[in-house]
Amino acid sequence: MEALHKKIREEGIVLSDQVLKVDAFLNHQIDPVLMQQIGDEFARLFADSGVTKIVTIEASGIAPAVMTGLKLGVPVIFARKHQSLTLTENLLSATVYSFTKQTESTVAISPRHLNSSDRVLVIDDFLANGKASQALISIIKQAGASVAGLGIVIEKSFQGGRAELDAQGYHVESLARVKSLTDGVVTFIE
What is the CATH number of the domain that holds 47? Predict the structure, then answer.
């Protein structure tokens, strides 16, 4: 997706050969026009997948997930990282390790929002080692629902997440596939 590639080149900051900072448009400040384009593209890519729900993890996946849900006309559920007084009943949950934050969190979804008739599209901001995607897949399976596919805004292809998901037979669509972050330069797989 050229608009996303351009935004990454112009506003992304390479912090190391493993970390790309995109807080100017994706996960701190949000570019709503770009998010709408991202949602439109994911909707196009998964239009024939029978999606009934979209699942993401708070907070960075919410904007692209909502825009995709708006275009597909389906509800968006976000797995919460923090418990609340209102989210207590027999939660569907999984543990996820964040490469960027170097922390482990439990993410949870109420079982009221997913059921065995759902076909779920996972949307996330990044795919690196695949731990967030695997956690969401686990939650979807706990509900007895099926995975329609995974839509990733930015994939760090030099890490192992994509290979793991491909080996498990999941349909993965990444809008920007980063080949490397060497010497402060973002190189894409075209």
Answer: 3.40.50.2020
Answer yes or no: are the C-beta atoms of 47 and 179 closer than 8 Å.
Answer: no
First-to-last C-alpha distance (Å) of the chain: 10
Q: What is the C-alpha separation between 22 and 7, in angstroms, rounded? A: 9
pLDDT tens-digit map of 82-141 = 666 566 678 898 988 776 677 888 888 989 999 999 999 999 999 999 999 999 999 999
Residue 10 resides in a domain: no
Q: Is residue 139 part of a domain?
A: yes
What mean pLDDT value characterizes the chain? 93
Give the Cα separation of 160 and 127 in Å (integer). Answer: 9
Structural domain containing residue 103 = 31-177
Q: Which residue is associated with the tokens 């993890």?
A: 57
Q: State the total domains in the chain.
A: 1
Using the structure block, give the residue that is written with the tokens 């076909």.
119
Q: What is the distance between the alpha carbons of residues 99 and 155, in angstroms, rounded to a whole number?
A: 13
pTM for the model:
0.93
Give 182's DSSP letter: G
Task: Tell me which residue of 151, 181, 144 sits closest to 165, measured CA to CA.
Answer: 151
